Amino acid sequence: MKTEPLTWAQAHTNIALVKYWGKANLELIIPQNSSLSLTLDHFYTQTGVQFDEYLSADQFWLDDQSIPVSSKVKRCLDVVRELAGINQFAKVVSYNHVPNSAGLASSASAFAALATAASRAAGLHLDGKQLSRIARRGSGSSTRSIFGGFVEWHGGNSDATSYAEPIQDPVTMDIKMITVILNRSQKSISSSNGMQRSVTTSPYYPIWRDQAANDLINIKQAIYSNEFTNVGEIAETNAMRMHSLTLSADPSFTYFNADSLTVMNVVHHLRQNGIECYFTMDAGPNVKILCQSKNEQRIQDELANHFKPQDIVVCNPGPGVKVIRDPRLK
């Protein structure tokens, strides 16, 4: 009997401007606080899924290499199987156009693409809210990559109330994000482990959670009012407060490296000389710089004094997840 072809989806990474850092429910990946992100156009994942009655176990292929099926991938597939009322195992084929586990949100695009492709392959036609809840079971930040533009993830307190929705797509603000890729290797402390250490040992964690809630209110107002300066200031301060939790954890740790500090100093220098830009960082050494079109080239020129051109990537606001044709077909 001929099997059906894989169903494919493509999702883009997102970078949080108001960070999610810490889980209130580890199994459901319910966050300690709501968050807000910008989906980017440059980095993305393409994933194909096929449920096959002849398979004896789930299979996973990443960039043409067979690898073990992780518990997170299995969890997403199990949620889809339960919703669709099927029990077949799945073949998953994924191509990741993002450095893995380096603080560039590779898991966000990966699980958003997986949730979408798997649900379609299972015969489900779900809306964005439903897809974001499935994606969340693999990676918290992936709930936001279901949508394009500025996206809010409502933290909630249950599976039903923890989901994402777009707050502005298409983006009307003149905003770009320059990503400086400082390290393409997998980070030594995973986001999940770093979060839990911060939640359980940093004495400042409750203050962070309250401040993040205020940051969310303020940055949404800045987006609606098209106030780039306020967006940038809130994003930079929020990121540094998040990273202060890693430094105040026990034992302390950091995702910064020497090059991270160099980029931050470049941003400070540019601002002092009238070039408006702001930095943010996720759980990894790579730094992202928020700017407007008029300053993009000046910032790139300054960064080129310190880093290779191929490691400086200019991103624009990106789209939400979509079903695509098989990317292997030319």
TrEMBL record:
Q: Which InterPro entries does this UniProt record tie to the protein?
A: GHMP_kinase_C_sf, Mev_decarb, Mev_diP_decarb, MVD-like_N, Mvd1_C, Ribosomal_Su5_D2-typ_SF, Ribsml_uS5_D2-typ_fold_subgr
Write the Enzyme Commission number(s) for this entry: 4.1.1.33
What terms describe the molecular function in GO for this protein? diphosphomevalonate decarboxylase activity
Q: Which UniProt keywords apply?
A: ATP-binding, Lipid biosynthesis, Lipid metabolism, Lyase, Nucleotide-binding
Domain (Mvd1 C-terminal): give its ranges: 178-311
**Which residues does the UniProt record annotate as the domain Diphosphomevalonate decarboxylase-like N-terminal?**
11-164
Q: Which family does it belong to?
A: Belongs to the diphosphomevalonate decarboxylase family.
Query: Under what name is this protein listed?
Result: diphosphomevalonate decarboxylase
Task: Identify the species of origin.
Answer: Nicoliella lavandulae
